[in-house]
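Appendix B, example 12.
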Amino acid sequence: MSAAPLPEAVEGQLAEIGRADLLVGIPSYNNARTVGHVVRAAAAGLGKYFPDAKAVIVNSDGGSTDGTREIVATAELPDLATVLVSHPATPVARIVTPYHGIPGKGSAFRAIFQIADRLDVRACAVVDSDLRSITPPWFELLLRPVLEGHADYVAPLYHRHKFDGTITNGVVYPLTRALYGKQIRQPIGGEFGFSGELARVFLGKPVWETDVARFGIDIWMTTTAIAEGSRLCQVYLGAKIHDAKDPGADLSAMMTQVVASCFDLAEIYEPVWFGRRGSESVPLFGFPHAVGVEPVPVNVDRMLAIFRQGLTDLRELWEKVLPAPLLDALGGLAEGAREAFHMADALWAEIVYRFALAHHARVLPRDHLLRALIPLYLGRTASFILEMWDAGAEEVEARIEGLAHIFEETKPLLEAEWRRSS
């Protein structure tokens, strides 16, 4: 598949730069409030930790109307002579480019991968543009394992509020771990490092006119790296403080997109995951330590109301996906008191696998199927929040690890039905 053309002005910049060692990509859309801080942190990190490298910062913007691109283009980068031990041998170049294609983060990444390929870079990092906790050391952690040959793909590990990252904790981490056998804790974290060669692999995949080019790009990158046999590692980045959202109010659309990508990838990489059992740890760089995090607003009553309404409105549809015992169990949950609401791990794991099977067998139109999962996801999230309301960080993490083990133990159910429904 031929790559989308880059803007003429960008082509001119690339010709002038020629080649580079390092690239930091920052996809953005209306992030004027935070993007300047991210760019300055990137420039400081590149200058401090890689002073002899030729580095480029690429802002790939999706048509911001709040001045995001202008802020990147005019951001006053730190006076490196005053804050760094040694002066950078070469200045950090900046490229601000609009991306073209399906609106979404994936299309922004495509432009970043193209530029990395054109500049023949050795290592790349991509970071979100809404981060408030990003610091210069993040860039050493994301880039150095690649430069020193320890890894081809670097995933982040964060300390997050216990009710942040519910899509990761409740669906994507346990599902990805069970399928592919790698314990990458934040597979959709947003901040990644990877080799220039892997950037070319990403660029060559036929996904850029699909829905993956929306919210699904992070899990696509992680799964592709695992399935293609890349050397993996994780790096501890401390706190991730960004514009967190109420999981019951803001994340439903993102959840369907990410889960759709997980299901699509299971189709593509069936030969990789089918028959694989258990999981193994992935090397970790950096020192995990507790840090302060911001609270995440949650509205459990709203989540439970949507779950209960789903039992009324979607039962006929759920009957096409879930066996009668699961439906009966869900009905029993809805009848109990709020404080006693609890969706067991085994029940939730089977629900996710049953929806994966329905997606595989084309039981329902894809959009209908994924939207029908939302009330169940919100019910599971409400159950987790109620259970963990007074729990500490270690207890919460142990609880998530327990869920991941249940997904691994339940995986034979998926396999038993998968090829039968092909």
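Residues 80-84 have pLDDT under 50 and may be disordered. Strands lie at 22-28, 55-61, 93-98, 123-126, 153-159, 192-195, 232-239, 284-285.
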